[in-house]
Amino acid sequence: MGRKRLIKLLTIILVVALSLWYLYPSIRYYRLSPEKRELERELRDKAIHLGLDLQGGMHLVLEVDTKDMAEKEANLAVEQALTIIRNRVDQFGVAEPVIQRQGKNRIIVQLPGIRDPERAKELIGRTALLEFKLVKDWADSKERLLEKLSHEIPLGYYIPESKEEEVFLIEKEPSLTGRELSTASPEIYEAQPQVSLEFTKKGAGIFSELTGKHVGERLAIILDDVVYSAPVIREKITGGKARITGRFTMNEAKDLAVVLRCGALPSSCEKIEERSVGPSLGRDSINKGVRAAILGLILVALFMLLYYRLGGLIANLALLLTLILLMAALAGFRATLTLPGIAGIILTIGMAVDANVLIFERMKEELKSGKSIRASVEGGYTQAFPTIMDANVTTLIAALVLFQFGTGPVKGFAITLSLGILASMFSALVVSRAIFEFLATRRGFKRLSLASLIGPTRIDFINRRRITFALSTILIVIGLFALGLRREKNFGIDFRGGSLVQLKFDSPISADEGRKALSEIGLGASTLQQFDSGKGMIIRSDRDATGSIISKFSQAFRLEEVQRRETVGPEVGKDLQRAALLALFWALIGILVYIAWRFEFRFAIAAISALSHDVLITIGAFSLTGREFSLPVIAALLTIVGYSLNDTIVVFDRIRRNRKILRKEPFPIMVNISINETLSRTLLTSLTTLIVVLSLFFLGGEVIHDFAFALLVGIIVGTYSSIFVASPIVVAWGKRAGR
Question: Which residue ranges form the domains of the chain, and what is each CATH number?
Answer without folding.
Answer: 3-117 (3.30.70.3400), 128-264 (3.30.1360.200), 279-443+461-483+574-736 (no CATH), 498-568 (3.30.70.3400)
